[in-house]
Every structure is written in structure tokens, then in C-alpha cells.
Amino acid sequence: MDDMYGKGLLKGLSITFKHFMNTYLEDIRWLARGKRRYYTLEGIESRKSSDATGIFTVQYPEERLPVPEEFRFIPFLIYEVNEDGEQQDRCTSCGICAKVCPPQCIWIERTSNPDTGRPVPEPAEFFIDVDICMNCGLCAEFCPFDAIKMDHDYEISVYNRQEKNIFNKERLSRPLSYYASIRPTNYAREEAARAEAEAAKAAKKAARMEKTD
Ligand code: SF4
Ligand code: SF4
Fold first, then answer.
1. pTM for the full model?
2. Pick from 49, 129, 140, 184: most CB atoms within 10 A?
3. For residue 103, is pLDDT > 90?
């Protein structure tokens, strides 16, 4: 009956108007507290809460919802920088990730010694077809060298996917510090395990040397 007279419509509009007014009132309250309601993590968190009044949408693309640490999108390759400032790939081009990848969207070109023709444990090239990648994370899980990890960056749209969406080694490579910044817990756990393994190896070596002396 209400709808027959347009009362439902008016009720809906009044709710919209209330949200509209509350947005400005809430903005003023935040300003009075000397805080920023937009473009800050605190502001996004407050708008996500069930107590939010006024606007609760995220102002994308100026604002982005933070993603959880275990969020995964396209894989990336980790490189470290040595004492001479040279970039060193962690990847040894062992090919395990390419083997386990369910849709087979990874392919690797191995480096070989130009004099002997023997393989060198580093990739000359590394490609991932990101249109085929299904973000399963198996490559990262199976890599024995912690060389490939899942990225948080989900904004990879392009105008020409045929040309742009085969990511090469250069496009895929990121420094270790980037990995530490997006996955701090994983990074800390892996570094602790690495340090422990190295200490055990050093202790074993020392014990062997002691025996031979
Ligand atoms: S990323 Fe890891 S699993 Fe893949 S080839 Fe390199 S070292 Fe092997
Ligand atoms: S995330 Fe899954 S589909 Fe994508 S490259 Fe890794 S194994 Fe393949």
C-alpha cells in the first residue's frame, strides 16, 4: 500500500539523505580530532566497521583495501643484491615450478656456459603467461629455494593482453626487500629457518674438522 503512494520511495530517499548528511558530520568529527578519514588505513578500517556512519565505500583507486598477508595473485621472482651491488637471482632454473604448475603457464630458459655448454644454475629467461595463471600458489610452495613467491599486486590490466601479459624475467623480478614488506611473517619464518640450517651446517663442518685434527 505504501508503495502505491510512493511512500517506500520517499523512505529510501530519506535513508540516502541521512547517509549523505552523516558523511559530512562524520568528516567534521574526524577533522575536529585532527585525523584524516580518507586515504589512511585508520579511516578505511573505521568505514569497514559496522558502527560506520555516513559513507562507508572505499574511494578506489585513490584508496585500496589492504589485502591479508596470504593474499596471492601473480607470482614474482626474488633477487638479492650482493656486496658489489649486483643483482643475484635466487632462482636456479631447476624447473620444479614449471613441472608442478597445473595449467603449465611457466617456461624457463636455462643459462649455459658458452665455453663448455654445461648448464649454469640461473635462468637466462623466465616467462609466465599471466592470462593462464590461476593464482594457485603451487609454484611458490614447491620452489626449494624460496625464489618464487605470490604477489599482492592485482592491478595488472592492460590494453593489449596478447603483447603485455607474457611476463618475462625482468617484469617478474622483485628485490628481497619487497617480499619482506608484503609478507613479513613468512619472510621472518623463512629467514629464521635459513639461519638455523646454516648454523647446523657450520657446526657439522666444525665437528668434522675437529675429528680430522
Ligand atoms: S623458481 Fe624455484 S622452482 Fe622455479 S625454477 Fe626457479 S628455483 Fe626452481
Ligand atoms: S600460481 Fe599456479 S598457475 Fe600460476 S604460475 Fe604458479 S603454479 Fe602456475
1. 0.84
2. 140
3. yes
